[in-house]
């Protein structure tokens, strides 16, 4: 075989190397162009996704983009005009106005504010609306595993019972007056001298030293106010026909009161004395000056159902005569009230008559206000962020509890006492 001349071999190799280098350079250029295009496409897609959320008309009161990642979205599925939903407004304002510790919760009844209602962190259902929502088929058809479906009610279970198993396994959390709710809606709290909340609570340890005379340490202004009272009992009531039959109890009490020449004065729609709603606070102030006792009778007998009626008495230097389905030792200091449900009409009137006759005995009902600075204090729950039930919702949605899986498998048994459903046609209820 004849060998090629060296010059020809060099020329061949040079030409081949040139082609190889050219191919390599073309590949590099092609790669850079495509990577750049891929990057640009990704950035464009990302920008589109962001712009879909962030470009929002300010007039809609929808959240700004910088807040989205940290917001907890709360959808009010029920009619937002129902109390207390109507006081929540839209957005974060209700939490900001209350100075809540957590204000990153966004409340709305707009199911379309997000791309899908399954993206909301919590969906709240108002208990009294359950029957209507179900009968009109106005319920969510999908839900996400991260969502908390919350049953909410400040109305008693006796007045709005759940008598079917339809809602079993439906709700993740409960938000109500019941002390075993996930979020408790309290009307008032009792704090100790240090400001720590003592009650209401399922387990309460009241401090009262039997060896101390707390009455002696009551302020002179309070004593003078208590000794200026001249009338027996006041009652503010506008619902005259109730599930608890409190109106029947009031009549029975009056029968015994006549024996001791004590008089009940009833204000409101069910009485002869008129007090308009806008003047309620002034009426309560006048009551505190004149009356020894106040009937704090609930309209229904449900577990833990204690409303602001008790606060009307305690905030105005009057002893409450309570009637309800609650264990009042979880709510009020011992010996600060008279429990009509446990004593019965005759003993209730006897205790009232004895206290009115003996002023020192009457003052003992206020022992919890004695001591340096007072042993205990009472206030409305919603005047302080730490105990405000609305603030509690946002705090719960920011707590580790959101990562827990919870479900009320037997919701009907938890919410409704069996006696509430005995005489009810189930098909007409929730």
UniProtKB/TrEMBL annotation:
Domain Fucosyltransferase C-terminal: 227-414
Annotated protein name in UniProt: Fucosyltransferase
Pathway connected to this protein: Protein modification; protein glycosylation
Topological category with respect to the lipid bilayer: Single-pass type II membrane protein
Domain (Fucosyltransferase N-terminal): residue spans on this chain: 72-187
EC number: 2.4.1.-
Top-rank taxon, per record: Eukaryota
Alphabetical keyword list: Glycoprotein, Glycosyltransferase, Golgi apparatus, Membrane, Signal-anchor, Transferase, Transmembrane, Transmembrane helix
Similarity-based family: Belongs to the glycosyltransferase 10 family.
GO MF terms held by the record: fucosyltransferase activity
Listed SUPFAM superfamilies: UDP-Glycosyltransferase/glycogen phosphorylase (SSF53756)
Compartment(s): Golgi apparatus, Golgi stack membrane
Organism in which the protein naturally occurs: Leptosia nina
GO cellular component terms, A-Z: Golgi cisterna membrane
Enzyme class: transferase
């Amino acid at each position: 075989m004849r060998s090629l001349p060296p010059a020809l071999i060099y020329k061949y190799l040079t030409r081949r190397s040139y082609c190889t280098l050219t191919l390599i350079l073309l590949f590099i250029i092609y790669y850079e162009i495509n990577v750049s295009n891929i990057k640009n496409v990704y950035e464009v897609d990302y920008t589109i996704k962001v712009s879909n959320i962030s470009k929002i008309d300010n007039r809609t009161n929808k959240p700004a983009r910088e807040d989205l990642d940290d917001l907890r979205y709360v959808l009010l599925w029920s009619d937002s005009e129902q109390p207390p939903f109507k006081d929540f407004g839209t957005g974060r304002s209700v939490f900001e106005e209350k100075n809540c510790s957590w204000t990153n919760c966004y409340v709305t009844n707009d199911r379309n504010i997000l791309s899908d209602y399954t993206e909301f962190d919590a969906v709240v259902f108002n208990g009294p609306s359950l029957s209507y929502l179900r009968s009109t088929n106005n319920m969510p058809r999908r839900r996400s595993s991260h969502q908390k479906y919350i049953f909410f009610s400040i109305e008693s279970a006796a007045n709005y019972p759940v008598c079917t198993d339809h809602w079993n396994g439906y709700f993740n959390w409960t938000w109500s007056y019941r002390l075993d709710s996930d979020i408790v809606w309290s009307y008032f709290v009792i704090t100790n001298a240090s400001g720590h909340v003592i009650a209401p609570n399922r387990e309460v340890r009241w401090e009262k030293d039997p060896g101390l005379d707390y009455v002696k340490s009551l302020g002179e202004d309070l004593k003078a106010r208590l000794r200026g009272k001249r009338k027996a009992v006041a009652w503010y009531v506008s619902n005259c026909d109730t599930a608890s039959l409190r109106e029947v109890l009031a009549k029975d009490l009056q029968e015994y009161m006549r024996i001791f020449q004590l008089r009940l004065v009833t204000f409101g729609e069910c009485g002869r004395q008129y007090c308009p709603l806008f003047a309620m606070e002034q009426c309560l102030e006048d009551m505190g000056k004149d009356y020894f006792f106040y009937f704090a009778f609930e309209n229904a007998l449900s577990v833990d159902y204690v409303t602001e009626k008790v606060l009307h008495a305690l905030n105005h230097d009057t002893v409450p005569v309570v009637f309800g389905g609650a264990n009042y030792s979880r709510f009020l200091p011992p010996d600060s009230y008279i429990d009509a449900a446990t004593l019965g009409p005759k003993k209730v009137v006897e205790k009232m008559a004895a206290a009115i006759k003996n002023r020192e005995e009457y003052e003992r009902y206020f022992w919890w206000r004695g001591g340096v600075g007072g042993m205990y204090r009472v206030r409305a729950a919603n005047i302080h962020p730490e105990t405000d039930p609305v603030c509690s919702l946002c705090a719960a949605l920011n707590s580790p509890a959101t990562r827990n899986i919870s479900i009320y498998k037997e919701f009907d048994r938890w919410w409704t006492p069996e006696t509430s459903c005995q005489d009810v046609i189930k098909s007409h209820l929730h």
